[in-house]
Amino acid sequence: MDYSADLYRIIAGWGDLSPAWVKAGALVVTDVLLLAFIPVAAFVWWRVDRRLRAMLAILLSGGTTWVLNGLVKGIFEQPRPCNVLPVRTVEHCSEVGIWSLPSGHAATAAAFAMTVAVLWRKSIAVVAIAALLEAFLRVFIGVHYPHDVLFGLLFGSLIGLIAAIAAKPGARRPPAEAIGADVEPTSATS
Question: What is the pLDDT of residue 174?
């Protein structure tokens, strides 16, 4: 935790020393980035996989992650670093929840990104960068330790992978042997 706290001080301190327009931009981007996955889900549905199951997998992976993340935070009950460490931050700690581990923003971005990346492999670089940017910004604005966002990325990726596997074409098809197993073979000579 000491290493994470030291890294937090460096990154959050860098955020605090940034120009006002960078701080304002970071606060906007950290929230807008999650909303950007909604049109991405629509695009993947329109361009890649026109099954409703694919779009729902993307949206539900993020929503499910957000809800489950709140439950996990209640288990760990780790206070936010901005409430514990004497560091000036971009985001005021009074404007965010009490608990820090795992980062809900990082987890949700990772869930969206993983689901999209599995359904549409050409998007891997873009969605991975978006999720990593979200994670970095949560430390930059001062509301999470680096280990919070790392755990969030892993947690969200797991949920996103499960959602993507469930949504893949053929995900719930029975084995080939079972299809037609109870059908009597017909003979051309009968």
Answer: 43
